[in-house]
Amino acid sequence: MIIGVPREIKDNEARVGITPAGVKSLTEYGHKVLVETQAGAASGFDDAEYQAAGGEIVGDAGYAWGKADMVVKVKEPIEKEYAYFREGLVLFTYLHLAPVPELTEKLLASKVVGIAYETVRDRQGTLPLLTPMSEVAGRMGVQVGASYLEKERGGRGVLLGGVPGVPPAHVTIIGGGIVGTNAARVALGFGAKVTLVDLNLNRLRELDDIFNGRLYTLASNSYNIAQATREADLVIGGVLIPGTTAPKLVTREMVAQMKRGAVIVDVAIDQGGCVETAKPTSHSNPSYVVDGVVHYCVTNMPGAVPHTSTLALTNSTFPYVTRIANLGVREALKQDAGLAEGLNTWFGTLTYRGVAESQHKPWTATASVLG
Protein backbone atom coordinates (compact mmCIF):
# COMPACT_ATOMS: atom_id res chain seq x y z
CA MET A 1 0.00 0.00 0.00
CA ILE A 2 1.10 3.59 -0.59
CA ILE A 3 0.62 5.78 2.49
CA GLY A 4 0.66 9.57 2.25
CA VAL A 5 1.71 11.82 5.14
CA PRO A 6 0.89 15.44 4.21
CA ARG A 7 1.98 18.47 6.19
CA GLU A 8 -0.80 19.83 8.38
CA ILE A 9 -2.05 23.22 7.21
CA LYS A 10 -4.64 24.07 9.86
CA ASP A 11 -3.73 27.27 11.69
CA ASN A 12 -0.61 26.59 13.78
CA GLU A 13 -1.09 22.83 13.67
CA ALA A 14 2.40 21.38 14.11
CA ARG A 15 1.73 17.67 14.72
CA VAL A 16 2.34 14.97 12.11
CA GLY A 17 0.48 11.75 11.37
CA ILE A 18 3.42 9.31 11.30
CA THR A 19 6.88 9.53 12.86
CA PRO A 20 10.11 8.26 11.27
CA ALA A 21 9.84 5.16 13.48
CA GLY A 22 6.44 4.45 11.93
CA VAL A 23 7.80 4.95 8.42
CA LYS A 24 10.59 2.46 9.10
CA SER A 25 8.10 -0.15 10.31
CA LEU A 26 5.78 0.33 7.31
CA THR A 27 8.60 0.10 4.79
CA GLU A 28 9.83 -3.08 6.46
CA TYR A 29 6.36 -4.52 5.78
CA GLY A 30 6.85 -3.61 2.11
CA HIS A 31 4.71 -0.49 1.99
CA LYS A 32 5.67 2.83 0.43
CA VAL A 33 5.41 6.03 2.46
CA LEU A 34 5.23 9.47 0.82
CA VAL A 35 6.05 12.26 3.28
CA GLU A 36 5.46 15.85 2.27
CA THR A 37 8.58 17.91 2.86
CA GLN A 38 8.70 19.53 6.31
CA ALA A 39 5.64 17.54 7.45
CA GLY A 40 7.33 16.58 10.72
CA ALA A 41 9.70 19.51 11.17
CA ALA A 42 7.62 21.37 13.77
CA SER A 43 7.32 18.17 15.81
CA GLY A 44 11.08 17.71 15.80
CA PHE A 45 11.39 15.23 12.91
CA ASP A 46 13.25 16.52 9.85
CA ASP A 47 13.14 15.22 6.29
CA ALA A 48 16.51 13.48 6.67
CA GLU A 49 15.10 11.29 9.45
CA TYR A 50 12.18 10.22 7.29
CA GLN A 51 14.51 9.46 4.39
CA ALA A 52 16.81 7.43 6.61
CA ALA A 53 13.76 5.45 7.76
CA GLY A 54 12.87 4.60 4.16
CA GLY A 55 10.32 7.29 3.40
CA GLU A 56 10.13 9.22 0.14
CA ILE A 57 10.11 13.00 0.59
CA VAL A 58 7.75 14.71 -1.86
CA GLY A 59 7.62 18.39 -2.64
CA ASP A 60 3.91 19.13 -2.52
CA ALA A 61 0.74 18.06 -0.77
CA GLY A 62 -1.03 17.18 -4.02
CA TYR A 63 1.46 14.40 -4.72
CA ALA A 64 1.26 13.02 -1.17
CA TRP A 65 -2.54 12.92 -1.40
CA GLY A 66 -2.85 12.01 -5.06
CA LYS A 67 -0.56 8.97 -5.16
CA ALA A 68 -1.58 7.52 -1.80
CA ASP A 69 -4.02 4.69 -1.16
CA MET A 70 -4.32 5.91 2.44
CA VAL A 71 -3.62 9.35 3.87
CA VAL A 72 -2.73 9.53 7.56
CA LYS A 73 -3.20 12.96 9.14
CA VAL A 74 -3.84 14.52 12.52
CA LYS A 75 -6.57 17.12 12.04
CA GLU A 76 -9.68 17.11 9.90
CA PRO A 77 -9.12 18.39 6.35
CA ILE A 78 -9.82 22.07 5.78
CA GLU A 79 -11.30 23.62 2.64
CA LYS A 80 -7.99 23.83 0.75
CA GLU A 81 -7.64 20.05 1.05
CA TYR A 82 -11.10 19.13 -0.25
CA ALA A 83 -9.76 19.17 -3.81
CA TYR A 84 -7.58 16.14 -2.98
CA PHE A 85 -10.55 13.92 -2.13
CA ARG A 86 -11.30 11.07 -4.54
CA GLU A 87 -13.25 7.85 -4.65
CA GLY A 88 -11.75 5.03 -2.60
CA LEU A 89 -9.12 7.14 -0.84
CA VAL A 90 -8.76 5.97 2.78
CA LEU A 91 -8.49 8.95 5.13
CA PHE A 92 -7.40 8.11 8.68
CA THR A 93 -7.42 11.16 10.94
CA TYR A 94 -9.48 13.09 13.47
CA LEU A 95 -12.64 14.09 11.59
CA HIS A 96 -15.00 15.58 14.21
CA LEU A 97 -17.75 15.68 11.59
CA ALA A 98 -20.77 16.43 13.78
CA PRO A 99 -20.37 20.24 13.82
CA VAL A 100 -18.98 20.43 10.25
CA PRO A 101 -21.69 19.38 7.75
CA GLU A 102 -19.73 20.83 4.81
CA LEU A 103 -16.84 18.41 5.39
CA THR A 104 -19.27 15.52 5.75
CA GLU A 105 -20.90 16.39 2.43
CA LYS A 106 -17.53 16.68 0.66
CA LEU A 107 -16.40 13.28 1.95
CA LEU A 108 -19.67 11.70 0.87
CA ALA A 109 -19.72 13.36 -2.55
CA SER A 110 -16.12 12.28 -3.20
CA LYS A 111 -16.77 8.73 -1.91
CA VAL A 112 -13.86 8.86 0.51
CA VAL A 113 -13.46 6.12 3.11
CA GLY A 114 -13.24 8.29 6.23
CA ILE A 115 -12.09 6.65 9.46
CA ALA A 116 -12.16 8.98 12.46
CA TYR A 117 -9.67 8.59 15.28
CA GLU A 118 -12.19 9.94 17.78
CA THR A 119 -14.76 7.15 17.32
CA VAL A 120 -12.46 4.10 17.19
CA ARG A 121 -13.01 1.85 20.23
CA ASP A 122 -10.94 -0.85 21.91
CA ARG A 123 -12.08 -4.11 23.51
CA GLN A 124 -12.93 -2.31 26.74
CA GLY A 125 -15.20 0.09 24.85
CA THR A 126 -12.97 3.10 25.49
CA LEU A 127 -11.66 5.55 22.88
CA PRO A 128 -7.94 4.72 22.55
CA LEU A 129 -7.13 7.27 19.84
CA LEU A 130 -8.94 10.14 21.54
CA THR A 131 -7.52 9.40 24.98
CA PRO A 132 -3.93 10.64 24.48
CA MET A 133 -5.01 14.00 23.07
CA SER A 134 -7.67 14.34 25.76
CA GLU A 135 -4.92 13.82 28.33
CA VAL A 136 -2.83 16.56 26.72
CA ALA A 137 -5.79 18.94 26.31
CA GLY A 138 -7.02 18.39 29.86
CA ARG A 139 -3.61 19.21 31.30
CA MET A 140 -3.11 22.12 28.93
CA GLY A 141 -6.55 23.52 29.75
CA VAL A 142 -5.47 24.40 33.28
CA GLN A 143 -2.08 25.67 32.12
CA VAL A 144 -3.72 27.93 29.52
CA GLY A 145 -6.45 29.00 31.92
CA ALA A 146 -3.91 29.99 34.55
CA SER A 147 -2.18 32.16 31.97
CA TYR A 148 -5.40 33.88 30.89
CA LEU A 149 -6.31 34.65 34.49
CA GLU A 150 -3.40 37.08 34.46
CA LYS A 151 -4.50 40.70 34.18
CA GLU A 152 -2.48 41.46 31.05
CA ARG A 153 -4.39 38.73 29.18
CA GLY A 154 -7.81 39.97 30.27
CA GLY A 155 -8.24 37.86 33.38
CA ARG A 156 -9.11 38.71 36.97
CA GLY A 157 -5.49 38.94 38.03
CA VAL A 158 -5.75 35.79 40.13
CA LEU A 159 -2.89 33.36 40.85
CA LEU A 160 -4.26 29.84 40.49
CA GLY A 161 -2.65 28.46 43.65
CA GLY A 162 -2.89 31.59 45.77
CA VAL A 163 -0.24 32.32 48.42
CA PRO A 164 -0.23 32.07 52.23
CA GLY A 165 -2.93 34.36 53.52
CA VAL A 166 -4.64 34.64 50.11
CA PRO A 167 -7.07 31.94 48.91
CA PRO A 168 -6.43 30.05 45.67
CA ALA A 169 -8.51 30.34 42.53
CA HIS A 170 -11.63 28.22 42.16
CA VAL A 171 -11.59 25.90 39.16
CA THR A 172 -14.82 24.27 37.96
CA ILE A 173 -14.51 21.31 35.60
CA ILE A 174 -17.53 20.13 33.61
CA GLY A 175 -17.17 16.42 32.88
CA GLY A 176 -15.30 13.67 34.68
CA GLY A 177 -13.81 11.82 31.71
CA ILE A 178 -10.21 11.84 30.48
CA VAL A 179 -10.14 15.62 29.98
CA GLY A 180 -11.73 16.36 33.33
CA THR A 181 -9.58 13.93 35.27
CA ASN A 182 -6.35 15.29 33.81
CA ALA A 183 -7.49 18.87 34.33
CA ALA A 184 -8.31 18.09 37.96
CA ARG A 185 -4.89 16.51 38.50
CA VAL A 186 -3.06 19.59 37.23
CA ALA A 187 -5.36 22.12 38.93
CA LEU A 188 -4.95 20.37 42.29
CA GLY A 189 -1.21 20.27 41.68
CA PHE A 190 -1.27 24.05 41.28
CA GLY A 191 -3.03 24.27 44.64
CA ALA A 192 -6.39 25.48 43.30
CA LYS A 193 -9.77 24.73 44.83
CA VAL A 194 -11.35 22.32 42.32
CA THR A 195 -14.98 21.36 41.78
CA LEU A 196 -15.84 18.69 39.22
CA VAL A 197 -19.36 18.21 37.84
CA ASP A 198 -20.49 14.95 36.24
CA LEU A 199 -23.75 13.11 35.57
CA ASN A 200 -22.39 9.70 36.59
CA LEU A 201 -22.44 9.31 40.37
CA ASN A 202 -20.27 6.21 40.25
CA ARG A 203 -17.64 8.20 38.35
CA LEU A 204 -17.79 10.91 41.02
CA ARG A 205 -17.18 8.25 43.66
CA GLU A 206 -14.18 6.96 41.71
CA LEU A 207 -12.74 10.47 41.42
CA ASP A 208 -13.31 11.11 45.10
CA ASP A 209 -11.21 8.01 45.83
CA ILE A 210 -8.55 8.83 43.21
CA PHE A 211 -7.97 12.29 44.64
CA ASN A 212 -8.38 11.28 48.30
CA GLY A 213 -11.27 13.66 48.91
CA ARG A 214 -9.33 16.76 47.80
CA LEU A 215 -11.72 17.23 44.87
CA TYR A 216 -15.18 18.71 45.40
CA THR A 217 -17.72 16.71 43.37
CA LEU A 218 -21.17 17.78 42.20
CA ALA A 219 -23.95 15.85 40.49
CA SER A 220 -24.68 17.43 37.13
CA ASN A 221 -27.88 19.46 36.83
CA SER A 222 -28.55 22.98 35.66
CA TYR A 223 -28.80 24.37 39.20
CA ASN A 224 -25.46 22.93 40.31
CA ILE A 225 -23.71 23.95 37.09
CA ALA A 226 -25.02 27.51 37.41
CA GLN A 227 -23.79 27.74 41.00
CA ALA A 228 -20.39 26.18 40.26
CA THR A 229 -19.71 28.43 37.26
CA ARG A 230 -20.85 31.53 39.15
CA GLU A 231 -18.26 30.82 41.86
CA ALA A 232 -15.47 29.85 39.45
CA ASP A 233 -12.44 31.82 38.35
CA LEU A 234 -11.69 29.20 35.68
CA VAL A 235 -14.14 26.84 33.96
CA ILE A 236 -12.87 23.85 31.97
CA GLY A 237 -15.42 22.30 29.58
CA GLY A 238 -14.63 18.62 29.04
CA VAL A 239 -17.92 16.96 28.06
CA LEU A 240 -17.87 14.38 25.27
CA ILE A 241 -20.51 12.26 23.58
CA PRO A 242 -18.46 10.27 21.02
CA GLY A 243 -19.05 11.34 17.44
CA THR A 244 -21.95 13.66 18.12
CA THR A 245 -22.38 17.31 19.08
CA ALA A 246 -21.51 18.15 22.68
CA PRO A 247 -24.48 19.25 24.82
CA LYS A 248 -24.60 22.95 25.80
CA LEU A 249 -24.46 22.52 29.57
CA VAL A 250 -23.18 26.02 30.37
CA THR A 251 -25.80 28.42 29.04
CA ARG A 252 -25.42 32.03 27.95
CA GLU A 253 -27.29 33.09 31.10
CA MET A 254 -24.79 31.19 33.27
CA VAL A 255 -21.88 32.91 31.53
CA ALA A 256 -23.50 36.30 32.15
CA GLN A 257 -23.58 35.51 35.89
CA MET A 258 -19.86 34.62 36.08
CA LYS A 259 -17.22 36.89 37.59
CA ARG A 260 -15.80 39.60 35.34
CA GLY A 261 -12.38 38.45 34.19
CA ALA A 262 -13.12 34.77 34.78
CA VAL A 263 -11.87 32.36 32.10
CA ILE A 264 -13.56 29.57 30.15
CA VAL A 265 -11.49 26.93 28.34
CA ASP A 266 -13.87 24.77 26.29
CA VAL A 267 -11.90 21.64 25.42
CA ALA A 268 -15.06 20.14 23.87
CA ILE A 269 -15.03 22.74 21.09
CA ASP A 270 -13.96 20.11 18.50
CA GLN A 271 -17.45 18.66 18.90
CA GLY A 272 -19.19 22.04 19.03
CA GLY A 273 -18.38 22.91 22.64
CA CYS A 274 -20.33 22.46 25.88
CA VAL A 275 -20.57 26.21 26.54
CA GLU A 276 -23.29 28.08 24.66
CA THR A 277 -21.11 31.15 24.09
CA ALA A 278 -18.16 29.10 22.80
CA LYS A 279 -17.06 29.36 19.18
CA PRO A 280 -13.99 27.79 17.52
CA THR A 281 -10.78 29.81 17.66
CA SER A 282 -7.20 29.26 16.48
CA HIS A 283 -3.74 29.50 17.98
CA SER A 284 -3.14 32.76 16.10
CA ASN A 285 -6.34 34.32 17.51
CA PRO A 286 -7.13 32.14 20.52
CA SER A 287 -9.45 34.13 22.76
CA TYR A 288 -12.38 36.54 22.88
CA VAL A 289 -14.60 38.03 25.58
CA VAL A 290 -18.33 37.61 26.18
CA ASP A 291 -20.00 39.39 29.12
CA GLY A 292 -16.59 40.14 30.59
CA VAL A 293 -15.59 36.45 30.57
CA VAL A 294 -12.50 35.41 28.60
CA HIS A 295 -13.16 32.43 26.28
CA TYR A 296 -10.34 30.21 24.99
CA CYS A 297 -11.72 27.75 22.44
CA VAL A 298 -8.82 26.59 20.25
CA THR A 299 -9.86 23.49 18.33
CA ASN A 300 -6.39 21.95 18.23
CA MET A 301 -4.99 22.73 21.66
CA PRO A 302 -2.46 19.83 21.68
CA GLY A 303 -0.92 21.31 18.52
CA ALA A 304 0.81 23.85 20.79
CA VAL A 305 3.00 21.06 22.20
CA PRO A 306 3.57 19.08 18.98
CA HIS A 307 6.52 16.93 20.00
CA THR A 308 4.75 15.50 23.03
CA SER A 309 1.41 15.31 21.23
CA THR A 310 2.73 13.61 18.09
CA LEU A 311 4.50 10.90 20.08
CA ALA A 312 1.48 10.34 22.33
CA LEU A 313 -0.89 10.17 19.38
CA THR A 314 1.16 7.96 17.09
CA ASN A 315 1.85 5.50 19.92
CA SER A 316 -1.89 4.82 19.78
CA THR A 317 -2.72 5.23 16.09
CA PHE A 318 0.17 3.34 14.53
CA PRO A 319 -1.03 -0.23 15.24
CA TYR A 320 -4.25 0.63 13.37
CA VAL A 321 -2.32 2.19 10.48
CA THR A 322 -0.30 -1.01 10.18
CA ARG A 323 -3.40 -3.19 10.28
CA ILE A 324 -5.14 -1.23 7.52
CA ALA A 325 -1.99 -1.22 5.37
CA ASN A 326 -1.34 -4.95 5.81
CA LEU A 327 -4.90 -6.24 5.47
CA GLY A 328 -6.56 -3.62 3.29
CA VAL A 329 -9.27 -1.37 4.66
CA ARG A 330 -12.28 -3.67 4.18
CA GLU A 331 -10.64 -6.69 5.82
CA ALA A 332 -9.15 -4.60 8.63
CA LEU A 333 -12.59 -3.20 9.43
CA LYS A 334 -14.18 -6.64 9.29
CA GLN A 335 -11.63 -8.18 11.62
CA ASP A 336 -11.67 -5.38 14.22
CA ALA A 337 -15.08 -4.28 15.44
CA GLY A 338 -13.49 -1.42 17.39
CA LEU A 339 -11.77 -0.06 14.30
CA ALA A 340 -15.07 -0.41 12.42
CA GLU A 341 -16.60 1.96 14.98
CA GLY A 342 -14.27 4.57 13.53
CA LEU A 343 -15.77 4.35 10.05
CA ASN A 344 -17.75 7.52 9.36
CA THR A 345 -18.05 7.52 5.56
CA TRP A 346 -17.82 4.65 3.06
CA PHE A 347 -17.98 5.27 -0.72
CA GLY A 348 -20.69 7.92 -0.43
CA THR A 349 -22.57 6.42 2.53
CA LEU A 350 -22.64 7.93 6.01
CA THR A 351 -22.02 5.14 8.53
CA TYR A 352 -21.85 6.84 11.93
CA ARG A 353 -25.10 7.35 13.77
CA GLY A 354 -23.98 10.26 15.96
CA VAL A 355 -22.96 12.34 12.95
CA ALA A 356 -26.17 11.46 11.11
CA GLU A 357 -28.33 12.52 14.04
CA SER A 358 -26.40 15.76 14.53
CA GLN A 359 -26.80 16.68 10.86
CA HIS A 360 -30.23 15.08 10.23
CA LYS A 361 -28.82 12.84 7.52
CA PRO A 362 -29.63 9.21 6.65
CA TRP A 363 -27.05 6.61 7.60
CA THR A 364 -26.29 2.91 7.13
CA ALA A 365 -24.66 0.66 9.70
CA THR A 366 -21.04 -0.27 9.02
CA ALA A 367 -21.80 -4.01 9.03
CA SER A 368 -24.25 -3.50 6.16
CA VAL A 369 -21.84 -1.60 3.90
CA LEU A 370 -18.95 -3.98 4.50
CA GLY A 371 -21.04 -7.00 3.53
Question: How would you characterize this protein structure?
Answer:
The protein has helices at 20-28, 47-52, 61-66, 101-110, 131-148, 178-190, 201-210, 222-231, 252-256, 306-327, 329-335, 337-340, 353-359, 366-370, and strands spanning 2-5, 32-36, 56-58, 70-72, 90-93, 113-116, 170-174, 193-198, 216-219, 234-237, 263-266, 287-290, 293-296, 343-346, 349-350. With 371 residues, the chain is an alpha/beta fold. The chain folds into two domains: 2-120 and 306-370, Rossmann fold (3-Layer(aba) Sandwich), CATH 3.40.50.720; 131-304, Rossmann fold (3-Layer(aba) Sandwich), CATH 3.40.50.720. Helix 10 packs across helix 11 (329-335). The longest helix is centred in the last third of the chain and has 22 residues, at 306-327.
Key phrases:
371 residues, alpha/beta, Rossmann fold, 2 domains, 8-stranded mixed beta sheet, 7-stranded mixed beta sheet, 14 helices, 15 strands, 36% helix, globular
